[in-house]
Design a protein that fits this description.
By secondary structure, the protein is of the alpha+beta class. Strands 6-5-9-8-7 form a five-stranded antiparallel β-sheet, sandwiched between helices. It folds into three domains: 81 residues, no CATH class; 57 residues, no CATH class; 91 residues, PAS domain (Beta-Lactamase). β7 and β8 form a beta hairpin. Bound molecules: iron/sulfur cluster. Iron/sulfur cluster binds next to α5 and α6.
Length: 311
């Protein structure tokens, strides 16, 4: 846990006269160039000046007060409270060789001089100082913003390249800018179609709608019959770039499966209906036979009764 020292006098006593300002002191009580725990590192100082160990004792400040707001009693009380810091393992600077610096440059894509931007976005005044901090374990390569951005872009490119969904980008005239491998496979084309209008591959109508209303996102299912392809499509605009993006999900198999299921459902219903009709016909036939038999039996009985009465 770094300790914030807000008292310039004490700093002057414990460090050099050239050093003034609020600093954060790491547990080793060492002001290290580029140490994230020492944001007040003054780059105008020499390395020796920057690495002055803060010897002696340092009063613990009240975190809720600055030196200016303390009453004299509080100051006395605080003066009686002192904390003595003993370095558990003193900071030892590594010997930095040119090979080590070159290794960091290689890792962060800075072997070419033009890639050493010295932009200070990482918090270090130069790429060299940053490389030294990486070697000393005080910084990580990802702290280099151009390197971090490039890595993130490469990751994104990889995601697009390996996506199972077809992805195409068009310019403001609906001409193809680029496409990923899945899109090329869906529409059986190569990068040679880049620069051609999208109408070369498909009906451009959905993209034309988007051109008219770029704030809308279009979600549609399209049957691209000539490619034996059914796609769920999401189309949207990138207004700042004046570009349009199309994401194509291949749902051909799903669609075929649904059609088969539908056919099966219809077949089952028609068979059930046929069975029902047959059952009804059978019941009617049985009922008719029973009625006929009952009528005959009645006639026979009447005839028997009549004959018996005559005798
Ligand atoms: S952010 Fe990267 S390019 Fe810029 S100075 Fe730091 S290390 Fe060099």
């Amino acid at each position: 846990m770094p300790v914030v020292i807000n008292q310039k006098k004490q700093l002057k006593k414990s460090a050099s006269d050239d050093f003034a300002g609020d600093v954060c002191v790491c547990p080793q009580r060492t002001v290290v160039p580029g140490c994230p725990s020492a944001p007040a590192v003054l780059y105008s100082l020499s390395i020796q000046q920057k690495t002055i160990p803060l010897r002696g004792t340092v009063p613990m400040p009240d975190p809720f007060h600055t030196a200016e707001t303390l009453s004299s009693e509080e100051e006395q009380f605080i003066a009686s409270l002192t904390a003595v810091y003993q370095a558990s393992s003193p900071f030892v600077r590594k010997e930095i060789t040119e090979t080590m610096i070159r290794d960091v440059y290689e890792k962060t894509g800075k072997t070419a001089a033009e890639n050493q931007l010295n932009c200070s976005a990482c918090g270090y005044p130069s790429c060299r100082e940053m490389a030294i901090a990486v070697i000393e374990g005080l910084a990580t390569p990802e702290m280099c913003i151009p390197f971090f951005r490039k890595t993130a872009e490469q990751r994104l490119d990889r995601v697009i390249e390996t996506s199972p969904n077809g992805i195409v980008t068009l310019d403001e005239h609906l001409h193809i800018i680029n496409m990923n491998p899945a899109f090329r496979q869906f529409f059986q084309c190569s990068n040679a179609v880049c620069g051609r209008p999208i109408s070369y591959l498909m009906d451009p109508e959905p993209f034309e709608h988007l051109l008219a209303e770029p704030e809308k996102m279009i979600e549609i299912t399209v049957n691209h019959e000539s490619y034996h392809l059914v796609c769920r499509e999401v189309l949207y605009a990138l207004p700042a770039e004046k570009q349009f993006v199309g994401i194509f999900m291949n749902i051909t198999k799903m669609q075929k499966h649904e059609i088969r299921l539908d056919q099966l459902r219809q077949h089952t219903v028609s068979q059930a209906r046929e069975l029902l009709e047959q059952q009804v016909r059978m019941a009617e036939t049985i009922a008719a036979c029973l009625g006929e038999n009952a009528a005959r039996a009645e006639l026979l009985l009447e005839s028997l009764v009549e004959n018996a009465q005559k005798e």
